[in-house]
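Lab meeting, item 3. Inverse folding demo.
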């Protein structure tokens, strides 16, 4: 059994990481700003240890760097790990959300269409069944209006797709793509009703992979991502109107 004080420390640590990360992304802590651990600890009611651990996490994400004599400084966005799930989550809530989502959607097109082509050559019958099972879970969630379960099933589909490609590097993109799909919930951009057409597009991709129809499967994957992109940015535009 984990001791309550250990749980509290972990929660506090995550809170400090989240708060500092969000402040950096929004510009409240601008590039070059010095982060004083004692001041952060007082403002967040956190121990010096928790703050220093949080700064080490942010350093690993490329967001801060400790410098001799001058302390820990905030780094520019070009040095951040822009594929890190936390960084993606913070950025889609910040002023750069449109640029972040545009870049990641472009990445999805490049990686997923290549993965689909590889799947057509290497996916096993069991892997195709796993894709179709994810589609069934999406259908059930859509019919019940459970958007959270729909998102998890959608993530499962795309994770299985990347895995079935047989390309280990593609598998490294599961985390960033999961963050993109979760962003729809974070920004409340998921439609309240999941259309049957959305499910049908996923099923079509899986069935074309099973048929080894490479060109048609790639086209279906592009159509699927484009549909997701259009819906996302349409609802973002509505929110800003």
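The presenter then showed the designed sequence:
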């Amino acid at each position: 059994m984990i001791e309550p004080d250990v749980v509290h420390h972990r929660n506090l640590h995550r809170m400090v990481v989240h708060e500092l990360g969000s402040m950096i992304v929004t510009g409240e802590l601008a590039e070059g700003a010095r982060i004083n651990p004692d001041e952060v600890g007082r403002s967040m009611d956190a121990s010096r240890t928790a703050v220093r651990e949080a700064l080490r996490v942010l350093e690993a994400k490329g967001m801060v760097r400790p410098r001799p004599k001058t302390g820990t400084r905030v780094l520019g966005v070009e040095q951040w790990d822009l594929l890190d799930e936390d960084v993606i989550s913070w950025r889609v809530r910040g002023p750069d959300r449109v640029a972040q989502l545009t870049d990641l959607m472009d990445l999805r097109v490049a990686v997923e269409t290549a993965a689909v082509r590889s799947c057509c050559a290497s996916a096993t019958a069991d892997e195709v069944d796993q894709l179709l099972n994810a589609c069934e879970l999406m259908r059930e969630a859509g019919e019940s209006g459970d958007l959270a379960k729909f998102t998890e099933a959608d993530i499962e589909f795309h994770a299985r797709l990347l895995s079935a490609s047989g390309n280990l590097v593609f598998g490294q993109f599961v985390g960033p793509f999961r963050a993109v799909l979760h962003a729809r919930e974070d920004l409340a951009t998921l439609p309240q009703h999941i259309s049957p057409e959305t499910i049908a597009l996923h099923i079509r991709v899986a069935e074309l992979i099973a048929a080894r129809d490479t060109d048609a499967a790639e086209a279906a994957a592009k159509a699927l991502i484009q549909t997701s992109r259009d819906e996302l940015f349409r609802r973002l535009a509505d929110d800003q109107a």
